[in-house]
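Exercise: predict the fold of this chain.
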Amino acid sequence: MTGSEIEQIKKLIIQSKKILILTHINPDGDGIGSGLALMNYLTKQKKKVFFINRDPLPKIYKFLPGSSKVKNSEKINDDFDLAIILECPELERTGNIIDFKKQVKYTINIDHHIGNTMYADLNVVDPKAAAVGIQIYKMMKGFGCHIDRDIATCIYTSIIIDTGSFRYSNTTPEVHLITAELIKAGADPEYIASEVYATTKNSTDLFGKMLSRLKIVKNVGWSVITLNMLRKSGADESDTDNFINSIRSIKEVEIAVLFKEYGKNKTKASLRSKNGYDVNKIARIFGGGGHKHAAGCLIDLPLKKTENKIISEIFKYYKNKIK
């Protein structure tokens, strides 16, 4: 984030009284963590701040400071001076819960996805940033903001989620330097990790069912989670957020996929990779996207058909050895 971008953001914040923060559908730790850090800062600036997403907050992030103030809605009816949209490569990824042209005076798009469509009045997009939380940290430092324990906790959470707890290739020296500052400011790595990666009896039961359906072929590993598996285990869909990383962590697996059944004709595919393989190329074929080593898509097809189509594309990709 450049000095000029920081100044532009600061100017828009100063002139705004009522501010909306939102992130993408099915919000994750980066969108939530960076949003809560921003909400904390804006509240201290005496702004009227609303953090609203289409989908509910996953249970694992309810430990974050300010999480009880995050709302979810299918439709926002209020008007705002400013909307700050976090980690959304396309405006549609917010879930179309507000008419930005009619209900918002100015929009800021802060993101780190390749292929961001630059849809806002001010677009601050850095594909080299390991997490949007990194961008928010730099912005606050540029503002001269004091990073307190609550802000540090939220930003640290966003970083560990998008770096796979510092296991992904986007874990740069800068990432470690910033997380060191966050720890100095009060972020507790042991506590945060225990909350983010905590399991329950039900989630462990579901994890076992997922592993029982694991397939590994030619360094591609994948499994499925059906609605029936969720019902039988008693687990929530949000309990599955870290399952994909367990498939990716298998030594022989270079591309990992987890298919989740959302309905009779709707399936979500989460893709992860290592050793230079670009799963964003696969996700984009199916209208999704993300990053080189972490991407996803939501497809209007039954689980089995989605599984067959995506795995087929991955094997084509492997055959052509595109990296």
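Check your answer against the key: The first helix runs from residue 3 to 14.
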